[in-house]
Amino acid sequence: MPGARVVVLVSGTGTNLQALLDAAADPGYGAQVVAVGADRDGIEGLARAQRAGLPVFTCRVTDHQEREAWDSALTSACAGFQPDLVVSAGFLKLVGKSFLERFGGRFINTHPSLLPAFPGMNAVRDALAYGVKVTGCTVFMVDEGTDTGPVIAQETVRVSDDDDVAALHERIKVAERALLAGTVGRMAREGWSVDGRKVRIGR
Ligand code: GAR
Hints:
This protein is 35% helix and 25% strand. The chain is α/β, with parallel strands linked by helices. The chain has one domain (4-201): Rossmann fold, CATH 3.40.50. The structure holds glycinamide ribonucleotide (GAR).
């Protein structure tokens, strides 16, 4: 199967991974998932990858004495699959220096808010607590900060008066899956450039 080689990193249920796998089933998509990595075992994200017949790897922080050693091991594990793009799809770890040295500019993440609003682990809860009427999701280029990298694409989602965290997150994830799969496909087919905080898809 031709196209850009994509390694996907997951920590949970992997519905965003599934969106990428489903999109890549179309030969015209322009990208193929070549491996799936995780920071823990026993998650549905890895099971989805195995059902798709993909190689998987797990890189646990607790298996390493230092965070830097974990970061190097994760970098090597991903590099072994020679990715053009690495996608964090609900991967709940911050990567370090060696990972960003190797994959900076081609490591993207998806986040369930309209960044720079509500970064961090509780974006949906924080948006609800703030009382915003519109939130959404962001696909961005990962940098050294927490959810601070250049924005690649965003989609809005309206907040309902009776939303709770679960209901709102589920609606955001519907938008997020389409945004992530669409953005990765466009990047793979058209290329991209990063100039400061500006990411441009297409040549
Ligand atoms: C997604 O909503 C993703 O944006 C979020 O975890 C979910 C993973 O869902 N990530 C973060 O909140 C990172 N700060 P999935 O496992 O079903 O793809």
